[in-house]
Amino acid sequence: MNELVFKSDKGTPITSSLLVAEKFGKHHYHVMDAIKNIINSHEKSCQFYVLSNYVDLSGKENPMYIMNRDGFSLLVMGFTGKDALDFKIAFINAFNKMEEMIKTGGFQMPQTFSEALRLLADKVEQVEVEHTKRIEAENTVGLLVHIGKTYTATELAKELGFSSAIELNKRLAELKIQYKQNGTWVLYSNYAELGWTSTKEEILPNGNIKYNRHFTGVGREALLKIFNARRMAS
């Protein structure tokens, strides 16, 4: 657990808001907000936190907090969840072990705060790489789950935030993705060959055959990207 805690130039164990966020499965900005709230609510608590920064994989500089044991204890006091207690114990053990190593000199530790920050930066990069890989793996699994499944317009309308399939179909028509022909919605030629839809045959009680259009997993993913991009741009 040494990687969770480092030595400051004052010889005290420290950790960072980024490591806490990663270990507890929280968004880093939520952890940052929690620390800011602590500092704003308790003036003396500012001695437990030092505002620093790190450089992410894109080269962008972002803020983070460095904290000692007391700062960590205040921060995670309200953290709850299935594994929260285990994570708290893991950090406490890491602090204890680090303090023991500092006292006994049994481990080669960074001797300055800047060295500790460099070690933290290395850990940040490792955390970001692992996080990116995990997200990519989750997305791949999610895509595989949806590839073999088909969806009605009603199902997609609900997922995309439309009030009904009628509203979704109207919007797709406005975006020149589909048009109506003989009472049936048909994709324009530049979308028709992309595998977005499939047709299912349904035999009615009277023996007649009805053809129902469903969206494929590929079509679902494409529409999600289209509408998410438009929401972000608006």
UniProtKB/TrEMBL annotation:
Looking at the record, the residues that make up the Antirepressor protein C-terminal domain are 149-228
A GO molecular function term, named singly, is: DNA binding
Which InterPro entries does the UniProt entry name for this protein? Ant_C, Phage_regulatory_Rha
Q: Name one Pfam family in it.
A: Phage_pRha
Instruction: Write down the NCBIfam families for this protein, in alphabetical order.
Output: phage_pRha
Know the name of this protein? Antirepressor protein C-terminal domain-containing protein
Q: Which organism is it from?
A: termite gut metagenome
